[in-house]
Specification:
- The structure is a single chain.
- The protein is built from 3 helices and 15 strands.
- Strands 1, 2, 3, 4, 11, 12, 13, 14 and 15 form a 9-stranded antiparallel beta sheet that branches.
- The longest helix has 21 residues.
- It is mainly beta.
Length: 369
């Protein structure tokens, strides 16, 4: 049986071109001093200008009078060991309570730390829908990227600030919608409708049973664009124009390296990352001078190497604002004790009196009842 449709089905949807993924290069003006600036990926980090005034020369820091740490007492060592055993459900408390300490050996362990606080700057073209914002491009030359004031955080704290560069803002037609404010709907390819999913475009469900979903048209309105065939441009939000300008990104980073000299106690150096020591040396200057007069030559060599690396590396792409070097003395006590006729050891380390015991002599299999 032939069907005469009272409402003719709509034609197939037209083809459309997808939105450009990135703005064309010619949308951005050539701004003196910012010629390498690009959109999205940034223009790379800008090297700081050569200082117009003499740079302060580093001076040797103060020399501490005492590099040593007194040993801990037996009571402190025993209390730390008991607390360590009680924190493990499978460890018996008897070795900590009944073990007899036969020897305690203290080690002075030095941690040298160098911090270099830097400021770096980079630029990139940015855009936003134009809604009457001020336009100042070409009214006067923009300030250089390193001439724009920025509010830095306190020394040795990371921070970031994004600043719109003055005198770089201009208005352009939106590249995504070609200044129309709307783009073809991707879900219906700009037709405003799609094949009815109930009747598959026939207009009927069963012979003379007209499809109620599409009223016999064979197509249904696109729910994404509400049958208009187009949607508001996401780039300009329907404004048809964009305000384009240069953003300056200022980053402050505290670059930190440290070096630990462990004096053959047997404790793994990695354990020391989770504890603190007693700070016995601190020197903060624009540029620090490597530590001198320290009794351990390894610390002196580490200071010379790290200071040279930091000052040579970070001055190439950033401006060094301040450096700080510190030395901590981390106490490590190697405790030898006897329990049930066997000799065992454990370590007490850091200001927190943490304990490391790789072979605890009394463990059991834990079970949950």
């Amino acid at each position: 049986m032939d069907h005469q449709w009272e409402t003719q089905a709509m034609y197939a949807p037209p083809t459309y071109s997808p939105d450009p993924s990135a703005p064309p290069a010619n949308i951005f003006d050539s701004v003196p001093g910012y010629e390498g600036t690009v959109a999205g990926g940034g223009g790379g980090f800008l090297p700081p200008p050569v200082p117009s005034y003499p740079v302060p020369q580093p001076e040797p820091g103060p020399s501490p009078s005492n590099w040593n740490i007194p040993s801990i007492s037996e009571d402190t060592a025993r209390g730390a060991f008991a607390l360590f055993a009680s924190s493990h459900c499978c460890y018996s408390s008897k070795p900590a309570k009944d073990g007899v300490i036969t020897n305690m050996e203290a080690f002075n362990t030095y941690r040298y730390r160098l911090e270099t606080f830097t400021e770096s700057r980079s630029t990139e073209w940015s855009q936003e829908p134009y809604s009457g914002q001020p336009v100042d491009a070409y009214s006067q030359p923009p300030p250089g990227p390193w001439d724009i004031p920025a509010k830095a955080p306190s020394y040795f704290f990371d921070g970031k600030q994004v600043i719109k560069v003055p005198y770089t803002s201009s208005v352009k037609n939106c590249h995504s919608c070609l200044g129309m404010g709307r783009n073809p709907c991707k879900d219906c390819a700009g037709a405003g409708n799609k094949v009815c999913w109930v009747c598959n475009g026939s207009g009927y469900r069963h012979e003379d049973d007209r499809c109620s979903h599409c009223s016999g048209r064979g197509r249904e309105n696109c729910v994404h664009c509400h049958g208009q065939g187009s949607k508001q441009c996401a780039t300009c939000r329907g404004k048809q124009q964009l305000l384009v300008y240069i953003n300056l990104t200022v980053k402050w980073i505290n670059n930190l390296d440290d070096y630990v000299v462990e004096q053959s106690s047997g404790l793994q150096v990695a354990n020391l990352k989770e504890v603190s020591g007693r700070e016995v040396f601190r020197d903060s200057q624009y540029l620090v001078y490597p530590v001198i007069g320290f009794p351990d030559p390894e610390v002196v060599r580490a200071a010379q190497r790290l200071v040279s690396e930091h000052q040579g590396t970070y001055s190439q792409s950033a401006r060094i604002l301040q450096q700080r070097q510190t030395i901590e003395l981390i106490p490590i006590t190697k405790v030898t004790y006897s329990w049930k006729g066997n000799s065992n050891i454990y370590f007490v380390y850091g200001n927190e009196f943490k304990v490391s015991s790789d072979n605890y002599p009394a463990t059991c299999c834990c079970s949950v009842m």
